[in-house]
Design brief:
heterodimer; A: 347 residues; TIM Barrel; eight-stranded parallel beta barrel; 8 strands; B: mainly beta; Immunoglobulin-like; five-stranded antiparallel beta sheet; four-stranded antiparallel beta sheet; 11 strands; globular
């Protein structure tokens, strides 16, 4: 089918973490799985799947390039988590984190990735990370290195933040000031969840939560979304209380009822042309082939209409929500997810 | 996530030298979705049959190298040595006479520091058969 959009689909190999952890597939197997799902690009977490990390030998590069050719995929992105808490009593200094970040930029270049997903200090909002991640001052120092190696820092804007949260702006401003456009915003679909995922319902129930209560909240969220109204927990709180939630329910409710609905599709459309990368996160896929708590058709419509150019990579996070109950078939989830995304592009 | 897989049932055995038991070992896997520098291990506490193992008697072996446990806890330990994702970290406990062959109750508490979340502490308990 003809596609008029400059949008490509990839897979973050993170999605296959259980296959890797339990030795069902090595890095080549994960690349093969991604290619087999129909994806044309891959994202790799070096600390997870490159055994010689932080060093990348020429022989590894040769092997990597061989896989890239054999499986017909392109390297898209390398992850950099900005780990700073190296020791018990002290953390990496800014200079040390800067030097470490240079490793990732050089590694991305060696492996043919033009992006690093950088965890910047505000990626999940302010004051949540226990450590200061890569901040705007360090990012500013990294910009010339990025320019030298042709690598762009993708700033993941993860829920509870969104792409239009002003906390991400200083990074773009410093790039503009220096005339080095090697940093950009990256949307993560976590910002577009409109209800609790079934994957989370299952997990909290196995921990001792009350299925009836969690499903009632989930249904209320869905109802609000499909009516085009914000979800306000206070409006159903009395009914929840009558069902006598236990401590596990309460902890779960506290975390999962803060959002009133997905971030704005209009804003997503407006920002689309300047996004540099996108994570299509998901936890579960329903019987209709849809992600069970995000409106993929609407999200894709916004991205297409807004003129997004670049990769959208599957990021499956259902494994860690469901693997306490048994094996999670990551390969099949990704296959279905890629199929859904292709359909969203074609429609 | 991987809490129940931290303590593996693979390779538990006595460690021998010149025909004598000089210790025993268990194998751990990481409690996170990627590898971490070994210096990001916040704690490994072992209890065998209800008895706490002396941390100074523990030696870690991973990816062809060996480190006394207390060394990796020191500030400025090298940051380029990784505990590989999905790969076993062998904990050797030095103990004259080793451990009685057979089943023992083993409890491990593993803490790891990571970039954007608080230290993750996983507790894993199993009945393991030592060779």
């Amino acid at each position: 089918m003809k596609m008029d959009y400059d949008i490509k689909l990839g897979v973050s190999l993170y999605s296959y973490q259980d296959n890797y952890y339990f030795h069902k597939h090595d890095l080549e197997g994960c690349i093969a799985a991604a290619a087999g799902s129909g994806a044309t690009g891959i994202e790799v977490m070096p600390e997870a799947m490159i055994p010689e990390w932080p060093y990348i030998s020429d022989s590894f590069v040769d092997k990597w390039n061989g896989w890239i050719e054999r499986y017909g995929v392109e390297p898209v992105c390398l992850d950099h988590f900005s780990d700073r808490a190296m020791w018990k009593n002290k953390q990496l200094s800014d200079d040390q984190l800067f030097e470490r970040s240079v490793w990732y930029i050089k590694a991305a270049n060696k492996l043919g990735c033009s992006l690093i997903r950088l965890l910047h200090n505000e990626h999940i909002g302010v004051g949540i990370s226990p450590y200061r991640l890569t901040d705007v001052k360090i990012a500013e120092r990294l910009l010339p290195i990025c320019a030298e190696y042709g690598v762009t820092m993708a700033l993941e804007c993860h829920a509870p933040t969104t792409i239009d949260d002003p906390i991400h702006e200083p990074y773009l401003e410093v790039a503009e000031k220096l005339g080095l456009p090697f940093v950009g915003l990256m949307a993560d679909f976590s910002s577009y969840e409109y209800c609790i995922s079934r994957a989370d319902v299952g997990q909290v129930v196995r921990k001792g939560g009350t299925e009836k209560i969690i499903n009632f909240i989930r249904e209320s969220q869905r109802e609000a979304y499909y009516k085009g109204q914000p979800f306000v927990y206070e409006e159903i709180k009395d009914r929840v209380e009558k069902m006598k939630p236990n401590e596990i329910d309460r902890e779960f409710i506290e975390f999962h009822t803060k959002s009133t609905g997905p971030a704005s599709y209009k804003v997503l459309k407006d920002y689309s042309s300047k996004l540099v990368y996108i994570h299509a996160k998901f936890y579960d896929i329903d019987e209709n082939g849809q992600v069970d708590n995000m409106d993929y058709p609407k999200i894709f419509q916004a991205l297409k209409e807004g003129g997004y150019k670049g990769y959208i990579c599957s990021e499956f996070e259902g494994n860690r929500r469901m693997n306490d109950a048994g094996w999670v078939d990551e390969i099949d989830y990704i296959r279905k997810h890629q199929k859904l995304m292709r359909k969203c592009l074609e429609d | 996530m991987y809490d129940e897989h931290v303590l593996t049932d693979e390779g538990c055995r006595n460690v021998w030298k010149n025909g004598k038991k000089v210790g025993y070992c268990v194998n751990l896997k990481i409690n996170y979705y990627r590898g971490l520098p070994i210096c990001c291990i916040d704690q490994i506490s072992l209890e065998v049959d209800g008895e706490k193992v002396d941390p100074s008697s523990m030696i870690l072996q991973h990816n062809g190298k060996e480190y006394p446990y207390l060394e990796i806890l020191k500030d400025d330990f090298p940051t380029d040595v990784y505990w590989l994702f999905g790969e076993k970290l062998r904990v050797v406990v030095k103990r004259e006479g080793g451990i009685d062959q057979g089943r023992h109750h083993v409890k491990v508490t593993l803490g790891t520091r990571r970039s954007y979340t608080p230290t993750m502490i996983s507790v894993c308990e199993k009945e393991l058969t030592f060779a």
